[in-house]
Every structure is written in structure tokens, then in C-alpha cells.
Amino acid sequence: MVVRHNLTLAELYPHWNCDEDDRLICRAIYSETQDIKTFAFTPAEPRQFNFAPGQFLTFEFPIDGETVNRSYTISSTPTRPFSITITVKRSPGGVVSNWLHDHLQVGDVVRAVGPLGEFSTWAHPAEKRLFLSGGVGATPMMSYVRRDFDMGEDFDTLYVHFARTPKDIVFRRELESMAIRRMNLKIAYVAEQMENERFWSGLRGRFSPHLFATVAEDFLEREIFCCGPAPFMAAVRGHLAASGFDMRRYHEESFDFDALPQAEQEAAPPPPDATVRSFEITFAKSNRTVECDENTSILAAARLAGMRLPASCAKGLCGTCKSRKLEGTVEMNHAGGIRQREVDAGMILLCCSTPRSDIVIDR
Ligand code: FES
């Protein structure tokens, strides 16, 4: 029997809206390399994800009785909107990445907010692009390439990926199968070490001006998107700036939880100012109290005092620093990384909250 109806696809399958239902079901898990896995999720009810390639979701994971927030870039493409994937590298000592690799099972439910972020080719259109990644920084690049492939958009794209060894090159077979069909998609891999690889005809080494000139000789003509570990991106940035590259055409993103945002690394305690009020911030679980003036974010004050708290974007976007406020009043200027119902429930983003009284945080 053929059932006919007049509903549009959008009516049959509305967009996923995390404010209505933020549950995502893990539907598949597969290994990409020896320490990278991809996790596929769908909404609890059939819904379409509406996102730009390069955007991320901030997940809530239930780990050891705590809720831990982490942002992961979507590695799938918006042209296949009924599920999303994230691709995660197991990092030594990494609480969330190890939990995902060891404990998340198909059928498990997690919660997520998003999609968020502006690290997208849609925000910076260009005919000639360079996608430059290190390690698992390939995830947004893969979303760009998959999307362009599905849409039949044959931009002049140079995809350059730096990996530890040839076996650590993520998405390799899929990239090469797309490149066979798209003349304008060129791929170059650089491996730092060989380990047991006997047949490697690609380049070898870490990022250096010489290697970069070898794989991307026309980089000055390209819009550059870069993602990877913080030292990798710092090396790229430094080289591009020194080469006279127009840095307005350079875009980067990283969720490197070991790297403090640049501004915080360089921040020094401001000189005392009698007109600026200062408050005590108590972290109840850590049993630490730090001073924080009304112009300084709680995250910055905690880090200046030597505390290590999870954070990534430091601008109220990713949600990684979300914490429960037990007492006190803050002023919070976020950029979408927290929902109103979470604010109503006493949550704040430490990176964009400044104190207006003494504060107690549940950390
Ligand atoms: S670190 Fe991203 S929202 Fe606070």
C-alpha cells in the first residue's frame, strides 16, 4: 500500500531544538585510527540537525556522578541532517575522551546544546581554500569536505593534514575516495614519525616553513582554515604573519583543554585600584578561595591563582566552563553557551561572569 501525504520534509522531520529536547542517542561507534573513534548520534525523536559545517555541540556527559561539559566539532555534514557524528581522540589522562572511548555504548543517552560556533566556510566564502589540520583537528575540515562533495561544489581545495604517524591519519580512505572524484580536491599528508610504516611516500616532519612551502606553495592566494593542537596553530599563525599573509583570511579553532586562551596566559594581576570592588570566590569542592574584582571574570581570577578549571573558548560560547553557583550574584555576558533554563537553575559560565558579591561555586 502506498501512503501519500502532503507534508513537507521539514514538517515531517522538524529541526532538532535543544531547548525542546536536548537528548541525543548514541547510534554507532567506530574506530578511525588506533586512538580515534567516531560516535554517531540521533535525537530521541526523529529530527533534522540544522548546522553550518565547522560548528560544534557542547555535550553534557555523566561521568563519576558529575556532569562534565565538553565541546566537540561535528565531523559529519549538514547534507545528511538526520544524525551527527563527533570524532574524538583518546588523550592520555583526558577525563572525557577516555570515558567516551571506554564507557559510552550504543543506545546510551547524552545531552547537548548547540549547534554553535563561527568556524565555518559559510562565514568566510572563498574560491580557493586551504584546510590545514593537525591530529583530530581534521574534524571540521571533514565536515567542510563532505558537505562540498555532497553538494557537488568543486572549489579549489587543498587539504593538508599533519599526523603523528601514517597510521594516525584520520579519514584517510574516505578523503582519498572523494579526491578521486573531485579534481579540485587535493590532499597532502605529513607524518611526523614512521613507526612500523614501510611504504610511505608522503612528506615527513613537523610543521615548518620549509614543509609548508612544499605542500602549499600558493598559500598566499587561499582562505586558510586551521585546527589542531595549540602549539601547531601557534606555529602556523607565526609563519603566516611573518610571510605577509593577510591574517583576516586566516581562521582557526581548537578545543585544546590544556591550552589557556592567549589573553589569559598573558594576563598579569592588574594593579590595585581602590575604586574597583573586589570579592571572594569560594570553590566549595576544591576548598579554595580566590580574590576577584568586579572587572575580572571568575575563570581568569581562578587561573591567575593557579587553579585549573575546564574551559575552552573563554568567551561564553562553548559552555565548557559551565558551573553551578551556590551563592552570590554575578553579571554574565555570554554568547549562547548557556540556556535560560540553566541560568534559572543557578548555572553560570565562569569565563564571562564577573562578581557582584562574594560567590560560592560548586566545584
Ligand atoms: S570557556 Fe567557553 S563558555 Fe566558558
**Order of strands across the main sheet:** 4-3-6-1-2-5
CATH superfamily of the largest domain: Nucleotide-binding domain of ferredoxin-NADP reductase (FNR) module
CATH architecture of the largest domain: 3-Layer(aba) Sandwich
Number of helices: 9
Order of helix and strand elements from N to C terminus: HEEEEEHEEHEHEEHEHEHEEHEEHEEE
> What integer value in Å does the Rg equal?
22 Å
Q: Indicate the CATH class of the largest domain.
A: Alpha Beta
Give the helix level as a range of percent. 10-25%
Distance between the amino and carboxyl termini: 58 Å
Q: What composes the largest sheet? A: 6 strands, antiparallel
So what's the overall shape?
globular
pLDDT averaged residue by residue: 90
Total beta strands: 19
Regions with little confidence, pLDDT below 50 for 5+ residues: 258-267
Percentage of residues in strands? 25-35%
What secondary-structure arrangement, pairings included, does this model have?
Blueprint: H1 9-12, E1 23-33, E2 36-43, E3 56-63, E4 66-73, E5 84-89, H2 95-103, E6 109-116, E7 128-134, H3 138-151, E8 156-163, H4 172-181, E9 185-191, E10 203-204, H5 209-215, E11 223-227, H6 230-242, E12 250-253, H7 262-266, E13 278-283, E14 288-293, H8 298-304, E15 322-327, E16 330-332, H9 340-344, E17 347-349, E18 353-355, E19 359-361
Parallel strand pairs: 7-8, 7-11, 8-9, 9-10, 11-12, 13-19
Antiparallel strand pairs: 1-2, 1-6, 2-5, 3-4, 3-6, 13-14, 15-17, 15-19, 16-18
The structure holds FE2/S2 (inorganic) cluster.
